[in-house]
Write a structure and sequence with these properties.
Number of helices: 14
Strand order of the largest sheet: 2-3-1-4-5
Number of strands: 5
Shape: globular
Strand content: 5-15%
Oligomer: single chain
Order of helices and strands: EHEHHEHHEHHHEHHHHHH
Distance between the termini: 45 Å
Largest sheet: 5 strands, parallel
């Protein structure tokens, strides 16, 4: 295999195998230098929107690469899912910053079918200390919200963040379609190492296969484990911002990591996305994302329906998944 010396930037998404790549695959790459995420955040994510210095950011990245082509991976480059990517404003700015410092980079984007993605995002929210139920989390505008109605003033969870075709089209325009590699999480989940091998072949990366572990990183909690964690989270003010709590017990949040592992052992059966979302919410989500997935499928030239992505719009719109009398306000 011929090594390609151009930089590689893996921008996420969150909950699409990024933890596995950061911990199990990227550190084994020998042809490129995997850059410490702390340096990536200092260079790309830390600077104020009006104070970004491309030269300083480039110098930080190249110094860390120490003569090798840099390999960057951080899911925050595609925007935080908990704040809707700051109302969709973070991802375009990060794309421009990447282009400014690494104009010849190849881009890796991993996407995931929205029902499974949203269930995994909710599981991560609970792991991070969240206490809201599924619908209160997914549809914040339908419930009490103390901040401004304008998301530029008070960013919050936003379903539009998972219309992947917008982000991918932006990177096609900036870097060229041939330099943007879109991977389906469903292919990754079927075989992480095989998926990584295929990606390495396309990108011209050499890596030490013997040191790659296929062990699952940051596994989602099942429905029963989530109930236990939500209860425990009522006694810590950390880490999620959108939550309720009764009293803050210092040190409890840090100790919950042991509880994560215990619950994963006790509740071994994985919950399906429909079990976590609820049947009514799952149907509504499928209808919500079918048009954007059809657009994405055409953009990529891929049959996304064959991989479990919702692409069929029902003849009649599904009913609101919220309780009767609760208005449905969703993007």
């Amino acid at each position: 295999m011929q090594i390609d010396r151009r930089p590689v930037v893996h921008i996420g998404h969150s909950k699409a195998g990024t933890s596995w790549f950061k911990q199990s695959f990227h550190p084994t790459v020998t042809s490129h230098r995997y850059i410490d995420p702390k340096i990536v955040r200092e260079a790309l994510l830390g600077p104020n929107g009006l104070a970004f210095d491309a030269k300083r950011a480039r110098d930080l990245i190249l110094a860390a690469a120490d003569g090798l082509p840099p390999l960057i991976c951080d899911e925050r480059l595609s925007g935080s899912h908990l704040t809707g990517g700051l109302h969709g404003m973070a991802a375009p700015e990060m794309a421009r910053r990447i282009k400014a410092i690494l104009p010849d980079a190849r881009i890796v984007i991993i996407i995931r079918a929205q029902p499974g993605m949203l269930a995994a995002v909710y599981s991560q929210y609970v792991k991070d200390g969240g206490t809201f139920g599924m619908n209160r989390f997914l549809f914040p505008d339908s419930y009490f919200f103390a901040g401004s109605e304008y998301r530029t003033q008070a960013p919050r969870f936003d379903l539009a963040h998972f219309e992947y075709q917008r982000l991918i089209r932006l990177y096609f325009e900036l870097f060229g379609k041939e330099n943007v590699h879109v991977v389906l999480f469903e292919q990754f989940r079927a075989g992480p190492l095989d998926c990584a091998k295929g990606l390495a072949q396309k990108l011209g990366l050499a890596f030490d296969e013997q040191n790659v572990s296929e062990e699952v990183r940051n596994p989602a909690l099942n429905r029963n484990a989530l109930r236990v964690m939500r209860f425990c989270n009522l006694f810590t003010a950390r880490k999620a911002r959108a939550k309720w709590y009764i009293v803050h017990i210092p040190g409890l949040f840090e100790g919950r990591r042991k509880l994560h592992r215990l619950l994963n052992r006790l509740f071994r059966r994985k919950s399906t996305s429909e079990e976590l979302l609820g049947p009514a919410t799952a149907r509504w989500i499928e209808a919500r994302f079918a048009p954007s997935n059809r657009d994405l499928g055409e953009l990529l030239g891929v049959d996304l329906g064959a991989s479990g992505y919702p692409v069929e719009t029902p003849e009649a719109p599904p009913p609101s998944p919220l309780p009767r009398g609760r208005p449905l306000r969703a993007t």
